[in-house]
Fold these 4 entries.
Entry 1:
Amino acid sequence: MKRTTWLVSVVALAVVAGAAFLLLRGNKDEIKWRTAKVDKGSITQRITATGTLNALIQVPVGTQVSGVVVSLTADFNSLVKKGQVIGQIDPTAWLNSLKDAEAAVQRARDTMLQAEVDYKRNQMLWKQKLLADADLDAKDLALKMARGSYESAKATLANAKTNLGYCTIKAPVDGVVVNRLVDVGQTVAASFATPNVFTIAQDLSRMKVSAAIDEADIGQVRVGQRAFFTVDSYPDKQFKGVVSEVQLNPTITNNVVTYNVVMEVTNEPRTAFVPAADGGARPERPRPETAAPGGRKPGPHAPSQPGTGATLEYTTARYMPPGSPVYKGDLALFPGMTANCTIVTNRKEDTLRVPSAALRFNPAAFVTIEDKKPAPGAAPAAGLRAAGPNPSGTARGMVAKRDDRLWVLANGKPKSVPCAAGVSDGSFTEVSGEAVTEGMLVLTGVDDFKKALNPSASPLGGGLRH
């Protein structure tokens, strides 16, 4: 009995001693601060957005008269010159209008000549006192009206000639046809609006990216800033551009305000970074002489099958005359591509910087702090430990908005150092201030936070079995 009591006493003393040791050790190593040095380096502030590529100048070509499209001499990817005929509207109705206008001019001219002769005859009678003044005035008015009718008929004739000219659709600029919106036989109506027939990109060597920038970032964007972007077709290639336009007209979608920013970029040859496998065009493979439906062999103009090296005339050029120049896609960027843009809004070289987390860390969540000298405009730190997660949803010890102060260790306790934050790239932030020096260790967080031990947390707790 005495031996059992002695063993229980020894075990109890060991438990108490171990718990005391762990408690003292836990209090000593309760917080392990994470630190970083204030160093010098470069900071590049960027804005990211998604935009769409288009030609710098893209001209819709329409028709100002209604009618049936009887011919087209251009198609997708056609190279056209200014003034080149690319389409024709049925001119029959407009030819009839022209003939009617010519006949109306002739009638008005004859009426005017007759009115002139009549006026001169009555003027002679008036001079001989054989005609009243009122009768002469009536003849003068008839002559003026005849002359007016003649001028009106000539204007109608000129308008009819112009409308007949509109039946011939011509390219307004040199460029590449990037879109064709009608087919031969289609009727276009120009009564209320001008229907588009083609879209011509004037110069595909100069492109533009139109990107929507959020109102929170638009204040940092300026004309002349550098821009970079990638497209999905060439994920490893970064294209360079420059901001050329910041449009003031806002776009509001679901209460989100954005502004359109235009960036200009020089298109690059595709072969500069995507060369052809054989250094040139892919050789044409011979087509198998398979029998056509009905037992007939395909003739020289039979439609070719996909992947058999078909020539251009048999595939896409439905309205293009043979031998017409065609854009072969030698440039890398195409209209309509999606661009993942990055605009460099600011850059600082060889400046003092700290990890951005240092400006958002507040040790008040872990220890009691008496901050007698808070940073200008900043609220004093809390003197109580934070319990549970932050209401803002941020990590423990991190504030939602950065503070204009840093935290350092003085005699093992956190101490605030006022500073001024500047340019930030997300990872690093520029800092300045009288107390901020290169090489200074600042707090950025906590590596390991151990709660004080209690009897129930002891690995030896929970009582002993006898």
Note: The mean pLDDT is 79.
Entry 2:
Amino acid sequence: MALSDDLPRWFGELKESPWGKAPLRGRSVRDEIRENLLRFLTGKEPVFAGVVGYEDTVLPQIVNALLARHDFILLGLRGQAKSRILRGLTGFLDEWLPVVEGSEVNDDPFAPISKFGRDRLRHEGDATPIGWVHRDDRYVEKLATPDVTIADLIGDLDPIRAARGGHVLSDELTMHFGLLPRANRGIFAINELPDLAGKIQVGLFNIMQEGDVQLKGYPVRLPLDVLLCFTANPEDYTARGKIITPLKDRIGSEIITHYPRSIELGMAITWQEAWTERNGTAPPARIPELVREVVERIAFEARGDKRVDRRSGVSQRLPISVLENVVSAAERRALEHNEKESVPRIADLYTALPSITGKLELEYEGELQGAEAIAKELIRRAALRTFTDRLGDDNDERLDRIVAWFDQGAALKISGDERAAVAVKAFALVPELLPLVHDLELAEVGDHGVEVAACELALEALAAQKRISRSEEVGWTAARKRRE
């Protein structure tokens, strides 16, 4: 972020530069964002790079709000990229912004709002030094908590500053500016808006419309130039607080976010965000697509499960964390056997239970069953959906022969840390299992790592259908009802 040598350093130079003439001179931050956004759209550039799954829903609504110069709020459950979108708004700002050097509120040299800026320009004129603020420093974010005060957001009178400067308390130079004035000529974001106390929200909507502030009874005119944006979780409206009606009325656009609406989109987001490209001396990971799909389906199954609190949602962080844990389990196994690559399996999902149980808010029925039991069931159901999607409508008779082999009293237990080649030999004991996964193109012949994952997927699917049983102690066996 090094400053270019050709940027004006003094007010006199600034007046002769493009920043001293229309359209840059006097342009508001909303107009700045609008003009830069129009260039993005004209050039067919991605509006929010890295945000996947909102191309036809959320992003067009955000674009409309910005083109209309609206303040807006993103309303959605946790883990829906709300904060990421807000932080991406800086991409629509100019790279550098001229300010009166030393100003705490990014004073526009041509229209300063603080007494400091006005006094400096009056005394120094064209020799007033000009500072430059980078676009990344023009974004201010605050997490709303019940203890946030007006002083935090807007400001307060500072008696120490008054004493040191010899000012009376009514002098504006004694004012300590809060976060909102310091975001002047930029973007100010508040996360979890309903958690903000009602009286603080009142201070916000006054700033949004009139620009008037009163500090300790002293009226201070602050015509701030700020784009305000917020996030909120619908659960907050009943669990912790609410957005007061006058503030909600002043927010130009309310935009509803959502979770990925297809497995493919979810997998793309998880693959983008998960840390799978590991460094160091560990063997490189090769993740079968079927494992990635099962990981993603765990979140989809949880979002539709009546035992999971839908008001809280199931964050996209769940499959991201699970995939990272699964890769770690495969990494550890590869190191133990001195293998050249690590290939995750379905069994590795059970080592990732801590990444699932901690992210599920359960209803009463779920609390009775326990988070771990529900997480294991979600893994089996995800495996079943993934397998049946590949199996199609064909009720393959080979599945019946696999089930019959277990019904005859056979059992199969393979350690999750077993070498892939040894595990494949064990799966070969089950009639038709390996030929089935090869015919369904779940794995290629000789690719032992993926063959293990594919065989485990088929057996997990049968366990989910209760055609066979699975337990940590004895492995895969005949279904309990048949054994009884």
Note: The CA atoms of residues 425 and 448 lie 10 Å apart.
Entry 3:
Amino acid sequence: MPSSEPMPNIGDHAEPIAGAEPPQRQMPGILQLAWPAVLGNLLYSTVAMVDIKIVGSLGASAVAAVTTGNRIFFVFQAVIMATSAGTTAMVARAWGAEDHDEAERITKVSVIVGAGVGLLLSMPGILFSDSLASVFRLEPETIAQASDFIFYLSFFNVSFAISMILGAAIRAAGDTLTPLWIGAITNVVNVVLVYALVFGRLGAPEMGVKGAAVATGAAFTLGALLSILFWLKGWFRIQYTRSKSFSAHRLQQLFKIGAPSGLEQGAVQLGFILFLWIVSFYGTAPYAAYGIGVQILSFSFVVGFGFSIAASTHIGQRLGANDPDGATHSGWRALSLSVACMVVLGGVIIFFAEPIARFMIDDDEVVRLTVIFIYILGAVQPLMAIEFTLGGALRGAGDTRFPLLTTITGLLVIRGTVAGVFLWMGLSVEWIFAALIFDYVVKAAMLITRFRRGRWKTIHI
């Protein structure tokens, strides 16, 4: 395509003509925003499942190492996710108010801040990977593999940051198709590289577990480079602006909105680490079962993520267009669709739990525990839909503090306490898995109450 001709935005719509309906009626619907995000996340989950299958051929220890490495890596991603949450709320509000210049300035500031944060966050993983992997009570071989995974993946933090923030900005402007195509390219490259680098195929060196980390990082680097290229070329709905973008007000707002989300993500990862630490008392098999079970059920989770993105974008834009009633309707509509979809997908996964688990790994005990974990987590899919969707809705409105409070209460206090008591009582690991039910019941009740009261409508950005 000639460089003089802008690449059309995938999912863009024609400009409204004079006399057309008000801007809020031109906004894309919940399903229109959700399905590309859902499809992209399903593709990601499929690739991640293939990755686990590839690593699983190396044994339960390798799966446990990757589970550990990813969990530690996501702790450092919490700060980047904070910037992403602030970007979504601010860009969606500006776009809904038809202030496209402000949306572009916010995006530029967010990308630069996120890249800087990503660079700083690379240091702990590179310098202290052994100590971080040793947090869990795992076998020495597993700890060594997890340390390698953390070390190599940490070099790609900047790529993850750029991909995440640009993707958030584009979606906040109502374009969820373009991130889908970039994600598809990234994920296809990822699975090819994982196969090549884990087993030493296609002329690549045989690297084992560390090869999975390098492959994932390299694939996301390609996605980040494509995103930057399209952004600079003006092929995104959100254009790159050469205007002065840094201001105390934008940075303050980005921090004000994003900081609670960052703390929330930090609490999420801390809660997961605490839970995994308790599970690790029972050995490698339950630990690996947890990692495999979560990966299998991610096919249902990603539907919730998709509707979370749709709710966040829709509510931010509706509030920007001074339509709080429309924002409320969007939130409930997204929730009903999310619950229906997650229940159906979760039911299918529960029905086929054993053959899927056996496909993932050839270890009878890991398979048995994986199936039990899927039964338990599958039963709370409606509650998870509430957390994903209404949590996203509140963040889109700029109400990022309450999801933080919800996470601390449900995940850290309730799940952590219940699991700890079950461990102290000497109950089996199946009871530890069941502790998460209490977590999701509490979080769902809190979020429904908060959204129904409507205080989020009055938050100013």
Note: DSSP finds 16 helices and no strands in the chain.
Entry 4:
Amino acid sequence: MTEKMKKIIAIATTLITLLLLVSSCQDRKTYADYLKDESRAIDLFISKHNLNILDEFPEDGKFGDNDFYKDKNTGVYFNVIHEGDTTQNLQWKEEVYVRFSGLEYFMTDDTTKYSNFKSVFPEEIVFIGPVNSNNKSSYSNPGWVVPLSYVGHNGKVKMIVPFDVGSSYDRSQYQPSYYELVTYKFESRY
């Protein structure tokens, strides 16, 4: 093989490799793509279940079965089923025990509904304040914290949680979640 032919083969191989690299990079989803997919999935879920999205939290705190308030800071949708004991405010660094049922990932074909009601130990949150950009990473599931400004001990909600304020699994899989029931028990009143 001549030197000229070796150069042509090397150039052709390099060009083919570059073309393959560029085309494979274009097939990957961006974070913005995942957010768009999530937004469409949540809108479809809301439409499919005839949910009424409230711009303002109800003045009397009462929700209809299909009324969901959308928190402007986090994008979490929730419905207060039972406000619980709100006579004492949640204290800073207080432990909150969380149990849930009917957890579903509605952007997948997975039809399983998950629960931790039969688990020996509930999930725990150490409350350090409402979810914001400074403390979001301090919570295992920041979405669970959002309703705590509106419910007390033994409070019950149902909620739609966007993946960026969901569990580490939700964030890694870009999966929003729906919970049929989330209950809160405050350690100081347990």
Note: Residues 3-26 form the longest helix (24 residues).
